[in-house]
């Protein structure tokens, strides 16, 4: 499918999805979110894709939801059309891992989109923020919920109430991002991480994603039981036999996703 607001490239089992509205610093509008959710659905169906990297430009991962698109809307408009309701649900339902590679601004909906991914690799130029308060509104895609779970109440309140930006170093220290890399290496580092994931058993990879995400939904006791049962179930796979045999035979495992 031809897209206008994103670019999708598939190579070596990794899909690189690049947000591409440079004139608006990749601000999220209806078209971009629809194209993104369609592309991710295609990646989910495509057997050649084993991991996904979502990125933006050097200047901006995404500077938020499109303010120009929203400015004239009323409550009735946004409530009736359920503005930005369905697409995030679609992104959440992708079972293959999605790495956000964030350089420059990740603000408002941009920060929230990055948090919908499975983990964030940040360039040293990255700036995260929930500045919706400056527009007389508030976060609407996870900035008051996911961010609070990721970095804790105090910092989430600070960011959402003052609208201040957090640089990459603080974001790593606070647990928002998994690692910080030089801006020039951002794409390569994210693709290398994705390639490494693509080499694993995809059954185990999906099990990991489901299990870690579960930890945000259920109490610890339930989560631990879920984890243990999923761990047990992986013993029904050929990949478990192959992985453990390969270790004992001191060779690389050849996973077949079975
Ligand atoms: N929406 C639309 N256009 C934007 C946005 C945006 N969020 N951000 C930047 N742009 C546009 C600018 O208008 C400008 O376009 P033009 O040249 O036509 O005037 C172009 O991108 C370049 O931007 P700047 O000239 O402002 O670039 P600077 O380098 O001076 O500043 C900033 C960069 C700091 C990123 C600045 O652009 C900025 O503050 N942007 C807005 C950030 C923001 O407030 N984001 C939050 C938006 S609201 C939101 O995300 C809510 C999400 C939840 C929705 C949930 C619904 C259920």
UniProtKB/TrEMBL annotation:
EC number: 4.2.1.17
Enzyme class: lyase
GO biological process: fatty acid beta-oxidation
Keywords: Fatty acid metabolism, Lipid metabolism, Lyase
GO MF annotation, one: enoyl-CoA hydratase activity
Domain of life from the UniProt record: Bacteria
Family, per entry: Belongs to the enoyl-CoA hydratase/isomerase family.
Name of this protein: enoyl-CoA hydratase
Species the sequence originates in: Roseovarius indicus
